[in-house]
Amino acid sequence: MNVNQLMADLERRHPGEKEYLQAVREVLMTVEETYNRHPEFEANKIAERIVEPDRIFTFKVVWVDDKGTPQVNTGYRIQFNNAIGPYKGGLRFHSSVNLSILKFLGFEQIFKNALTTLPMGGAKGGSDFNPKGKSDREIMRFCQAFMTELWRHIGPETDVPAGDIGVGGREIGFLYGMYRKLAQENTGVLTGKGMTYGGSLIRPEATGFGAVYFLRQMLERAGMQLKGQVIAISGFGNVAWGAATKATELGAKVVTISGPDGYIYDAEGLTPEKIAYMLELRASNNDVVEPFAEKFPGAKFIAGKKPWEVKVDIAMPCATQNELNGEDAKQLLANGVKIVAEVSNMGCTPEAIDAFIAAKIPYGPGKAVNAGGVATSGLEMSQNSMKMNWTAEEVDAKLHQIMSSIHHACLEYGTEGDYVNYMKGANIAGFMKVAKSMVEQGII
Ligand code: NDP
Question: Could you give the C-alpha distances from 297 to 2, 248, 268, 273, in angstroms and in order?
Fold first, then answer.
């Protein structure tokens, strides 16, 4: 494989899809050397085949708002690769959603799902629908309209969607209700379901909890422990909440959260009461974290800035892609950051990643750090197939085990002397599994 040549061809065929091209380049650059040691990969053109989605569905979503006015959005589902299991990946509802963002997320999902050790292929979907300021009824009508198109493409052994930005328990409920009605079956398609209709305990917390379990292993490997570390978290959504909850419970001090309006700096650190308020803030459907500082006077609101300017030991981006750039990385490094665990998908730009790796600061990429979310979705699928529910302890123990095995895979493929290049480790481990399975299954 010649990465530059392959990328030039991809850029020609998909001009302007910058997030997708960024994600593909990152993976191919890190696997190139290993790939070229396997002539069977090149003989089967695995790289050229793996970077293209199997298929993309684009559809119109028409729904009626509370004033009775019809509204039109675009819906997508990208079925990227199902070599190792049914397509699996979340749905994102956010005004910024476009084909390039969903293709990058679907591509990353292939390798993340492979890392979990569970049989799941990669997919992603969503819509440019903006849930901000919408009533519950509007959200319901949108979800139902979205599902009237999506349902024919998904199924328990075909494609199992889940949540992502803008899609939490409420949306999954509305989506699942419509799927069940149209498909006339109750097979658990969609994960992140409510506990009354097939959900799994620990699923809402899983991405953030799993991230902290992974972070703890990164710290141990580097001869440190989590207790007493000062952490900057960005975002104030589902993932930020889960990460803040577990990190605080294990004795770390989380001093920031953020929203599109700016960030909150709380020198005393978050408490369970403050973390619970994050949920309230998020549920208010407004785009702001500022009210946090009004509610807790010890906390300061810094308008229009990102939390990466604060002096911390650990940075955990938990909001969205490319939210930590080269300048932010420089600032964190100047302030003595010890570890970066990326929880959002592609949260760091390539310049930021290069800066961390050059400074030999352990950097855990999203596809490893946040894989606990999809892994627990996989566990939800298993429980649905068996028509059984595991206890919270059972699910949590399995989550622990999966995060350890991902960490182990990163060490196996990413150890470079004393330093662990987690990005390289995660990319190679995930890629190898999918590539081998594609070779074994022939050219299709
Ligand atoms: P939520 O919708 O609950 O929260 C997302 C957070 O990111 C919010 O604070 C949101 O603010 C902010 N955000 C979203 N888009 C932008 C943007 N373009 N610019 C600035 N801020 C933005 O989503 P999750 O917590 O579920 O997801 C957070 C990250 O974790 C994402 O990268 C997601 O892909 C990843 N992830 C999520 C998993 C899950 O299980 N939910 C699993 C694995 C990864 P606002 O909406 O107000 O703009």
Answer: 56, 20, 11, 14
Name the residue with the closest Cα to ligand 1, atom 23.
Answer: 165
Confidence (pLDDT) at 286: 75
CB hemisphere CA count around 120 (13 angstroms): 35
Q: Compute the mean pLDDT over every residue in the chain, rounded to the nearest whole number.
A: 97
Give the span between the Cα atoms of 329 and 352, in whole angstroms. Answer: 5
Query: Among the atoms of ligand 1, which is closest to the Cα of residue 96?
Result: 18
> 105 and 84 in one domain?
yes
Paired residues of 231 in beta bridges: 254, 314
Torsional sign, CA 225, 229, 234, 238: positive
* Per-residue pLDDT reduced to its tens digit, 269-328: 999 999 999 999 988 877 899 999 999 999 999 999 999 999 999 999 999 999 999 999
Would you place residue 136 in the very low, low, confident or very high pLDDT band (cuts 50, 70, 90)? very high
Residues with CB under 6 A from ligand 1: 94, 96, 163-166, 207, 235-240, 259-260, 287, 318-320, 343-345, 370, 373
Burial code (b: 16+ CB inside 10 Å, e: under 16) for 336-360 equals ebbbbbbbbbbbbbeebbebbbeee
For 150, list phi and psi in degrees, rounded to 5: -70, -30
- What pTM was estimated for this model as a whole? 0.96
Å from CA of 144 to ligand 1 middle: 22
SS (H, E, C) 194-251: CHHHCCCCCHHHHHHHHHHHHHHHHHHHCCCCCCCCEEEECCCCHHHHHHHHHHHHCC
pLDDT in tens, 36-73: 999 999 999 999 999 999 999 999 999 999 999 999 99
Contact criterion met (CB below 8 Å) for 406 and 423: no
In a domain, 395, yes or no: no
User: Which residue, of 319, 348, 369, is where some domain finishes?
Assistant: 369
Please report whether residue 303 resides in a domain.
Answer: yes
Expressed as residue numbers, the domain containing 360 is: 204-369
